[in-house]
């Protein structure tokens, strides 16, 4: 019997994984990219090849406000929980009671849709808790400025615990001797944070931030439940816009073209992530 | 080691784009194929949003159980919330995952008919004893694609106790009187005078107001949204919004909740409102204080505007379609069933015999509703287009832009019309 070479054996082992990848990732992806070149409706049979017309339509109109909203949401919902998570991780690492870690993790274990509904009631203009507490009548989800802020607050609440745990894990790998040596040399708390903690945490903090940024760039449920992309498109990010175009507007051609543009931007982020991880 | 420089990467990207474009040009159509399955099968599905709504769930389930028990068939039920329903049904129908009977809003029939998967129910329709108006609500493209389950209208409902408390005498008949009544109600603490839709999902409710101000919405195939009357209607709506006579963040479900809590004096709903609100209201006498009223007119002598509304049951061609069609006929035309259904949820039947049943004909609220609202109700002219939902969404999003101060009524409606023109297919 002929023996398999190492290379053939490796391919044999990879075959099931490759087959699954081709069936559930590659084929739908290529199929979706292909659809972007057609005028195709979800409710009508048939389709017409239109070349790059769908992309031209998008770049001449909806793409830019959606990109702006996506960036505002992504930056806000990455930076704020990152800072909050970092502060809490430092506090927990500096002697805050350990059981608080469990308490802070609580928002993270609740499904995103449930969290979103909770905040939907909190922010409701007519019978919401927030207006009740503040004695105001602000339409938090009904005004463009406050709607985006509300969405970012909600996402912050659900994602800061994950960042906190990851950063805390990073802090706990830091040798105590480094801080002790810096103290002996006369460094104060802020100086030790700047010169010892930050350099040590640079790698993990970068990865945590970048991952959160990528996830937020694709985030859907919080925005969809809270505002549905409104008011007047003020919170319409790529995820919501693609969903609306495909499944409410039934316009598969424009939806997949927008998805294609969105994917290109995500690929750029992925390159950053892979480089960061490699370094 | 070989590395990819930027120029190579750009070349690769360009080649990939060309490759995908070439692949696209040769790609086959991926839309669903012909219906499959045994049409005579004794098991079928029934998809209904009413099974997701507390006030109607038990009554609809009783119809399902009653038919399944009598006929010895198996009915598998499925449900989605109303606001997601069309989307879910469209996806499942396209993917061939939906069989049997489906409850549909009359507004959706045109869009789903375009998919070519619904059975023509002309034969059971001819035997059902339906009224002509009801039958027409289930027709699309010259075919009877749905059996009418209920036919009514969407109109204004008032809380008479709140109006009395605010010192509003009589029912406002004109827009000016209506606005004056809203201003009086606004003086009551914690009450929203008119819980009108302000969320995009339900802002299509502004269309009857546009008609009230004199816009036909559609003239032949020309969209008239953006004409002077429709702009005046949106400016008036914005005036109510700024004066807090209507409230932000309101859709049908919020409006029902506010009305049920006695925190809204007026709101728009279908006749089903009485059952839904009564089931939510802490004040058990609220149903008696609810009064349907004709939509105020711009000037005396105008015809009050209301939107025709109703449900039909359609049948997907394929697995179990014969039994599903029989179930649709039973649910919509069996007199005892429709009368009992009316008794439970107050949705008027669509057959002559059903309407003549004492349980229905003796109901004062239904009679009043029919006289004041349904009598002058007309269909939404955009329903004839498969893309009607997108047209409504385009208008709703632009009206919302006006409400939040992002755009003027004139600019917003011009933009909405531009978008809508591309959807008239």
UniProtKB/TrEMBL annotation, chain A:
Keywords in UniProt for this one? Answer: Cell membrane, Membrane, Transmembrane, Transmembrane helix, Transport
Q: ABC transmembrane type-1 domain: from which residue to which, for each copy? A: 67-273
Q: Which GO terms describe its biological process?
A: transmembrane transport
Regions that span the bilayer: 12-38, 71-92, 104-127, 147-169, 201-218, 252-274
PROSITE patterns recorded: ABC_TM1
**Cellular component terms (Gene Ontology):** plasma membrane
| Source organism superkingdom | Bacteria
Report membrane topology. Answer: Multi-pass membrane protein
Please give the Pfam families that the UniProt record associates with this protein: BPD_transp_1
* Keyword flag Kinase: no
Q: List the SUPFAM superfamilies.
A: MetI-like
Q: Where in the cell is it found?
A: Cell membrane
Q: Which family does it belong to?
A: Belongs to the binding-protein-dependent transport system permease family.
Q: What is this protein called?
A: Carbohydrate ABC transporter membrane protein 1 (CUT1 family)
Give the species this sequence originates from.
Nonomuraea fuscirosea
From TrEMBL, chain B:
Q: Which N-terminal stretch is annotated as signal sequence?
A: 1-24
Which Gene Ontology BP annotations are present? maltodextrin transmembrane transport; maltose transport
Identify the GO cellular component terms for this protein.
ATP-binding cassette (ABC) transporter complex, substrate-binding subunit-containing
- Its domain of life? Bacteria
Q: Name one GO molecular function term.
A: maltose binding
Sorted alphabetically, which keywords does the UniProt record give?
Signal, Transport
Q: Which PANTHER family match?
A: MALTOSE-BINDING PERIPLASMIC PROTEIN, MALTOSE_MALTODEXTRIN-BINDING PERIPLASMIC PROTEIN
The text of the family note is: Belongs to the bacterial solute-binding protein 1 family.
Q: What is this protein called?
A: Carbohydrate ABC transporter substrate-binding protein (CUT1 family)
The opening ranks of the lineage are: Bacteria, Bacillati, Actinomycetota, Actinomycetes, Streptosporangiales
């Amino acid at each position: 019997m002929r023996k398999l070479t190492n290379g053939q054996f490796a391919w044999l082992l990879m075959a099931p994984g490759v087959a699954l990848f081709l069936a559930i990732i590659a084929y739908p992806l290529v199929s979706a990219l292909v659809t972007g070149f057609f005028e195709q409706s979800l409710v009508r049979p048939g389709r017409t090849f239109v070349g790059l017309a769908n992309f031209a339509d998008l770049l001449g109109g909806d793409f830019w406000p959606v990109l702006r909203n996506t960036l505002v949401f992504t930056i806000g919902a990455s930076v704020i929980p990152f800072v909050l998570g970092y502060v809490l991780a430092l506090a927990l690492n500096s002697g805050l009671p350990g059981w608080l870690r469990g308490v802070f993790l609580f928002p993270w274990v609740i499904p995103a849709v449930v969290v979103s509904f909770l905040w939907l009631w909190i922010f409701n203009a007519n019978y919401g808790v927030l207006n009740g507490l503040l004695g105001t009548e602000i339409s938090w989800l009904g005004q463009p400025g406050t709607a985006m802020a509300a969405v970012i607050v909600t996402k912050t609440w659900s994602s800061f615990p994950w960042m906190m745990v990851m950063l805390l894990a990073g802090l706990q790998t830091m040798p105590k001797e480094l801080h002790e040596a810096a103290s002996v040399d006369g460094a104060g708390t802020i100086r030790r944070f700047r010169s010892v903690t930050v350099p040590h945490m640079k790698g993990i903090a970068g990865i945590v931030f970048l991952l959160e940024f990528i996830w937020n760039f694709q985030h859907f449920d919080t925005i969809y439940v809270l505002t549905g992309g409104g008011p007047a498109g003020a919170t319409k990010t790529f995820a919501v816009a693609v969903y609306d175009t495909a499944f409410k507007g039934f316009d598969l051609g424009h939806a997949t073209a927008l998805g294609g543009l969105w994917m290109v931007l995500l690929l750029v982020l992925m390159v950053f992530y892979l480089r960061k991880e490699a370094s | 080691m070989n590395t990819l420089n930027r120029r190579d990467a750009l070349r690769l990207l360009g080649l990939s784009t060309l490759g995908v474009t070439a692949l696209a040009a040769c790609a086959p159509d991926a839309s669903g194929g012909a219906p499959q399955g045994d049409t005579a099968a004794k098991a079928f599905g029934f998809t209904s949003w009413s099974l997701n709504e507390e006030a109607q769930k038990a009554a609809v389930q009783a119809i399902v159980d009653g038919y399944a028990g009598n006929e010895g068939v198996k009915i598998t039920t499925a449900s989605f919330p109303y606001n997601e329903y069309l989307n879910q049904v469209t996806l499942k129908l396209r993917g061939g995952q939906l069989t049997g009977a489906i409850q549909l809003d009359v507004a959706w029939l045109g869009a789903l008919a375009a998919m070519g998967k619904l059975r023509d129910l002309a034969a059971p329709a001819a035997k059902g004893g339906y009224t002509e108006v009801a039958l027409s609500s289930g027709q699309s493209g010259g075919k009877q694609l749905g059996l009418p389950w209920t036919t009514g209208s969407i109109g204004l409902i008032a809380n008479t106790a709140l109006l009395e408390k605010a010192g509003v005498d009589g029912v406002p008949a004109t827009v000016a009187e209506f606005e004056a009544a809203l201003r009086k109600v606004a003086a009551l603490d914690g009450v929203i005078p008119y819980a009108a839709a302000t969320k995009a999902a339900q802002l299509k409710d502004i269309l009857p107001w546009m008609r009230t101000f004199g816009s036909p919405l559609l003239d032949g195939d020309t969209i008239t949204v953006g004409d002077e009357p429709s702009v005046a209607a949106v400016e008036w709506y914005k005036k109510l919004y700024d004066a807090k006579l209507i409230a932000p963040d309101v859709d049908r479900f919020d409006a029902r909740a506010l009305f049920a809590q006695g925190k809204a004096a007026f709101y728009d709903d279908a006749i089903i409102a009485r059952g839904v609100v009564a089931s939510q209201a802490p004040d058990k006498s609220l149903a008696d204080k609810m009064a349907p009223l004709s939509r105020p007119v711009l000037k005396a002598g105008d015809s009050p505007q209301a939107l025709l509304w109703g449900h039909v049951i359609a049948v997907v061609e394929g697995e179990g379609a014969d039994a599903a069609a029989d179930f649709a006929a039973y649910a919509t035309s069996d007199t005892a069933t429709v009368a009992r259904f009316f008794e439970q949820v107050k949705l008027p039947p669509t057959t002559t015999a059903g309407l003549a049943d004492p349980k229905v004909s003796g109901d004062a609220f239904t009679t009043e509703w029919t006289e004041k609202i349904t009598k002058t109700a007309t269909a939404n002219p955009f329903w004839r287009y498969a893309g009607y939902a997108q047209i409504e969404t385009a208008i709703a999003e632009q009206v919302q832009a006006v409400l939040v101060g992002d755009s003027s009524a004139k600019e917003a409606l011009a933009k909405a019309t531009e978008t809508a023109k591309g959807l008239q297919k």
